[in-house]
Give the backbone structure.
Amino acid sequence: MNTTLEKLHQFGIVPVVVLDDAKDAAPLAKALCSGGLACAEVTFRTEAAEESIRIMAQEFPEMIVGAGTVLTIEQVDRAVNAGAKFIVTPGFDPEIVAYCQEKEIPITPGVVTPSEMAQAVKFGLDIVKFFPAEPSGGLSMIKAVAAPYTMLRFMPTGGLNPQNVGSYLQYDRIFACGGSWMVKSSLIDAGDFEQITALTKEAVELVQKYREV
């Protein structure tokens, strides 16, 4: 496995971050690191995303910062040039997957159906994002479709929270879980980074409690 992805696996939970203002990037990164999760998937659907990735990557080099909601090759280039160490797409885009593989950029594409998983296998991938997780059937759906695809591990994202993430973490085919409950926009907008650190610490404790070692 790529070393970047291996580090995400070790964290167990990847905060999925939406930043509307790049001024919040540094204090948010500090809050996550202080809480024990030195990683983030910064969604590329806001104008502040590119600069936020740049700030986090430069000021907190210990962090594994990636770009999520990537929809085009041009966004891949912008994100990587800003310092993104991995790319996450909401769906399976063969063009983006092939481009990232050619450039040796770690990519975790979104899948839900067996057909999309078959494509991932064909591209030689072993890590995929399962999105949107809860609306698509959650852990029971992952277990049902994972059986034929023994080479794949999953990063469920969408609808995960402290109440249900434990069941995901206990399943050995879960690579890591994507979650936004510790980095809610309301907390970021309010500048309540102490609460973000506290919620991040609780997330780390959940990984330690539920993940099989």
